[in-house]
């Protein structure tokens, strides 16, 4: 499908001044056990507390790949203001993608883009979607201990319905949004306004992967000046950890990756030492301890989703105070942990979105982006069009690939 035909699809149908008009747009659709396809879908107008967003660009995260293969999504079914029950299943068909940047717009200049009650955003605003919410009212939001809001659901809208369908069949979001689409509808609590000085490609990167790594050093580990850090995996998340550790003042930042080309990339973000596990008979933990006088690092961050590296990261940290932050997502749900390391005072902690609360914390990263404190340009190694998105999965296999941006 050519880009020209995609543009035609985005304005398909009779365009009249009608706020209830259902628009037809192009997206990348996944069905259970079937190859990904570009499909024409129906996108309804936003309802109360919702916005319709025209996507400008999106990006590809390894988590997207897991979900195409059936990674289960936890869905909580709610009565008003409380959780009633939850299930975990692989929901299909779904519109894919959860990283991106878009603009609140009147689709083809005639369709309303704001639902009832939306006052904090307006038509034309540049936003990034977030895959967790922040109501600032639930027990978790008020606790100061977690960024996991209990109020807003995943996969569907707040009323457990969808604004997207294909030939009458309901479509699920990947998480709370579906960015591999020309247009989508999201709850306003999953949208953060972006200063127009932020390039859309940069906005896409801070909507998930980079911010997840960066935030983990700040919100989860609270890395101190002069401390030592080990980062397992130098993809976008891992490089976000390196950048965050550098800005937090870490004196030693050790990157671990099988890809030798990541060595120079890591140095751009502030890495001081590099370990390629394939080039030594020693374990990664032993190599890290050699670089830290035998003590181990203060913090390790597992960013690959390889479950065996969780214990490796734990072993690489210092006795009595070492902290391992688990960020990477995997199909495997059980990891072996050395209990002696835990008994001797080491800690393992899981993290979603780096502990960042979208409404309260993302602005800090946005400000650093505006002030050019972050090396986001170095992350974008490939750009493709939406109709070429199938190529993105192959590009990720190339050794020089860090982040693929999809121009929509």
From TrEMBL:
Keyword tags: Metal-binding, NAD, Oxidoreductase, Zinc
GO CC annotations, alphabetized: cytosol
Alcohol dehydrogenase-like N-terminal domain residues: 48-195
Cofactor(s) needed for function: Zn(2+)
Superkingdom of origin: Eukaryota
GO biological process entries: formaldehyde catabolic process
Domain Alcohol dehydrogenase-like C-terminal: 237-367
GO molecular function per UniProt: S-(hydroxymethyl)glutathione dehydrogenase [NAD(P)+] activity; zinc ion binding
Similarity field: Belongs to the zinc-containing alcohol dehydrogenase family. Class-IV subfamily.
Oligomeric form and interacting partners: Homodimer.
Name of protein: Uncharacterized protein
Taxonomy of the source species: Eukaryota, Viridiplantae, Streptophyta, Embryophyta, Tracheophyta
């Amino acid at each position: 499908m050519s880009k020209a035909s995609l543009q035609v699809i985005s304005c398909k149908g009779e365009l009249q001044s009608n706020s209830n008009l259902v628009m037809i747009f192009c997206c990348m659709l996944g069905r259970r056990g079937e190859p990904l396809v570009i499909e024409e879908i129906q996108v309804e107008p936003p309802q109360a507390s919702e916005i319709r967003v025209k996507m400008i660009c999106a990006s590809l995260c390894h988590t997207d790949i897991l979900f195409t293969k059936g990674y289960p999504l936890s869905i909580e079914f709610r009565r008003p203001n409380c959780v009633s029950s939850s299930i975990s299943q692989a929901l299909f068909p779904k519109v894919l993608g959860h990283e991106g940047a878009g603009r609140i717009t009147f689709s083809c200049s005639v369709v309303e883009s704001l639902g009832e009650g939306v006052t904090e955003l307006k038509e034309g605003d540049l936003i990034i979607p977030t895959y967790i919410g922040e109501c600032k009212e639930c027990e978790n939001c008020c606790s100061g201990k977690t960024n996991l809001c209990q109020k807003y659901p995943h996969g569907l809208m707040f009323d457990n319905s969808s604004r997207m369908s294909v030939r009458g069949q309901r479509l699920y979001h990947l998480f709370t949004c579906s960015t591999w689409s020309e247009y989508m509808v999201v709850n306003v609590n999953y949208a953060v306004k972006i200063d127009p000085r932020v390039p859309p490609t940069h906005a896409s990167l801070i909507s998930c992967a980079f911010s997840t790594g960066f935030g983990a050093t700040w919100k989860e580990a609270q890395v101190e000046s002069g401390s030592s850090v080990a980062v397992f995996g130098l993809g976008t998340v891992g490089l976000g950890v390196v950048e965050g550790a550098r800005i937090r003042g870490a004196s030693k930042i050790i990157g671990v990756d099988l890809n030798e080309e990541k060595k120079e990339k890591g140095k751009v973000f502030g890495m001081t030492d590099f370990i390629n596990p394939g080039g030594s008979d020693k374990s990664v933990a032993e190599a890290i301890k050699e670089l830290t006088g035998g003590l181990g690092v203060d913090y390790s961050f597992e960013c690959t989703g390889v479950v065996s590296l969780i214990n490796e990261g734990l072993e690489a940290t210092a006795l009595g105070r070492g902290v391992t932050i688990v960020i990477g997502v995997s199909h495997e749900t059980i990891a072996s942990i050395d209990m002696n390391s835990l008994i001797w005072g080491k800690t393992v902690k899981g993290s979603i979105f780096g502990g960042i609360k979208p409404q309260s914390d993302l602005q800090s990263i946005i400000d650093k982006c505006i002030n050019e404190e972050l090396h986001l340009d170095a992350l974008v190694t490939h750009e493709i069009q939406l109709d070429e998105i199938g190529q993105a999965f192959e590009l990720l296999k190339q050794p020089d690939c860090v982040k693929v941006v999809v121009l929509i």
